[in-house]
Amino acid sequence: MYFQQITRQDIGCATYLVGSNQTGEAAVIDPRIDLVKELLALLEREGLHLKYIVETHNHADHVSGHHQLAQRTGATIAVHALAGVAYPHLALQHNDELTLGEVHLRIIHTPGHRPEHIAVAVIDSSRGADPWLVLTGDSLFIGDVARPDLAVAGKEGARELYRSLHEQLLALPDGTMVYPGHLAGSLCGRVNNRMTGTSIGFERHLNPALAIASPEEFVQYMNENLPQRPPNLDRIVALNKAASIPPIAPLDALSAQEISQRQAQGAQVLDVRSVQQFAAGHVPGALSIPLDAGQFQNRAGHLISAETPLLLVASSQEEAHRAQAALAVIGYTNVAGMLSGGIEAWQQAGYEAQSLPSITVQQLQEKKMGEPELQIVDVRDPDEWEAGHIEGAVHIPLFTLPQKLNSLDAKRPTALICGSGLRSTIASSLLQSKNWSQLYNTEGGMSAWNSAQLPTHTDEKVSRA
User: Which residue windows are transmembrane per the record (predicted)?
Assistant: First the structure.
């Protein structure tokens, strides 16, 4: 048997290629749209012929590459009969088997995350009749299980997920290897480790969600402390069910004048460079979301409408193309072009570059004590805020900031703070694009504040770091 795991840490996705060493037939499970070229090259290099493209479910966090792969290879797309898709496909049922020479893919219907969800047990008949491994998609994760609230009511989904886990997946032998569809970084669960594989036995004994024996307690547990929902999920699901998905188009290189004209017509400039590069100089009105700082797609999805035309500013063409591919993964097909020559070309063409004012934590403390009008906005997550924050600060998590801008006073001086300075730079760029004039980004964030032993506040008491 041939087996290959392909992971992407951006939003914690995993794709799998399974094949026969005897016949050269292969199947790909859960391919993202940005992996099409890589998968085709891998198939050619390994001498494999793609027979099946298997989707464990209609994904809500990323766009699939099943259409492009099917067009390029002639492979059959296989998905559960409940998926309700508009494209030609093989409708799968529980206990169906797809054959690749000595390898058999047994379909296990595991609703919960979504009604059509399946897991795929992989059997190598040359080794024995028991599954060697199981591809669990968005059902069983490493140290966690999938969230149940993306397609149906959370309680109903959790009940179905409980049955799927205990009646189907935990019925497999303890030695069965487990490879999930999501790893750390995904909003489809609460995984916080960097492992890429596990086993049924290990999860049976050590997974907190599987230790809950009562269905009622499981339902309650699964609907507590869930991460924010994947952004743009309705659009992504619709694309994945559609009769066709547009491929990633060539990226046009635009002059500074063209960028300025399109920006005036309503396009959003998205600067994907590092926060340091953005702070030093950027296109006025640009939004900063660094490509290589983690959670790029989730941040873009929460802060920018999928309908807004995007213009990229990057440090290189290669970075711009990677950003375009990353945006395509979350259904953003409206990238209108990139600034040719980067910010240097913008300035050489005679356009102004805007900088982002910043202050140290010591300066922030001085301003807090001496300027009563100063509003401090903390954009960290709720658990970070609860662990300790600056007294008097306003808490608005980054992902909710666009909806809560009206709760802030744009005329007052405003300091943004997060954990390290990354998220506050993104937040500052959003406010700056809305013509916030007296704006400061706090260098080093709460990490620097605590290192300087400045006072922090909790709901119970004031403490020192």
Answer: none
